[in-house]
Amino acid sequence: MNVSVVIPVYNEQKTILEILRRVQAMNVASEIIVVDDGSSDGSRDILAGVEGQNCVRVVLHESNQGKGAAVRTGIQHAQGEVIVIQDADLEYDPREYPNLLRPIQEGIADVVYGSRFLGGARRPILFWNMVANKILTLVTNVLYNNILTDMETGYKVFRREVALGLNLRARRFDFEPEFTAKILKRKVRIYEVPIAFNPRDYSEGKKIKAWDAFEAMWTLFKYRFVD
């Protein structure tokens, strides 16, 4: 099974080489697609030095468009049968790949979510972020009649053909609710597995803000009734 790892990047010069090292160390990816979303901190210079090495492909956005736009670009460029979304900030550990990929390899799922709330190890910070995530997940389950534990997880793994059939439009952090809403409406087979999580706080460069939670809520309601 060919696996494409898509890494959206925006001003991650401190972590981009380390996340690439961790992904490559797993020997899972047939290609690693790094989408730089208009970085201005030197990330592009770093990426220029690794493009073409160890399966790395770099795609550049000339201006910052948002994480969702970067992920969509990565999906369009991916050639693997299965796509793994990997954030560049070291919050998510590529050592989880075998567990994330197993339900698809075994033919019991077409989409796998790595849940931060199923008992995996995690760094205990950012209480209000957790509360917001749980509220958004609850709303997702009510609207789409499901029992997910972590709609907002950044670890989403899926067959490429599934994503290409969703007509995704997200540009910012609304990618997570849009993707989830559309796969649940289509009754795509989804599976959750526990993952470890090491969140960074705002002083360490965390980018998601309170407004993004409101945007996510609106996205969930919107796609319940439109496509």
Describe this structure as you would to a colleague.
With 227 residues, this protein is an alpha/beta fold. The protein has one domain: Spore Coat Polysaccharide Biosynthesis Protein SpsA, Chain A, CATH 3.90.550. It is built from eight helices and seven strands; from the N terminus they run βαβαβαβαβαβααβα. The chain has helices at 16-25, 43-50, 67-77, 97-105, 127-144, 160-164, 175-185, 210-225, and strands spanning 3-9, 31-37, 56-61, 82-85, 111-115, 156-159, 190-194. A seven-stranded mixed β-sheet has the order 3-2-1-4-6-5-7, with helices on both faces. The longest helix has 18 residues, at 127-144. The chain is globular. It starts with a strand and ends with a helix. The mean pLDDT is 93.
- Report, as a whole number of angstroms, the end-to-end distance: 30 Å
Name of the CATH class: Alpha Beta
The quaternary organization reads as: single chain
Write down the Rg. 16 Å
Total number of helices:
8
The domain count comes to 1
Structural class: alpha/beta
How many DSSP E strands?
7
Biggest β-sheet: strands ordered side by side in the sheet:
3-2-1-4-6-5-7
Strand content: 15-25%
Q: What are the low-pLDDT stretches, counting only 5+ consecutive residues below 50?
A: none
Give average pLDDT, whole number: 93
The string of secondary-structure elements, in order, is: EHEHEHEHEHEHHEH
Task: Tell the overall outline.
Answer: globular
Main beta sheet: strand number and arrangement? Answer: 7 strands, mixed
| Helical residue percent band | 25-40%
CATH superfamily: Spore Coat Polysaccharide Biosynthesis Protein SpsA, Chain A
Report the CATH topology name.
Answer: Spore Coat Polysaccharide Biosynthesis Protein SpsA, Chain A
CATH architecture field: Alpha-Beta Complex
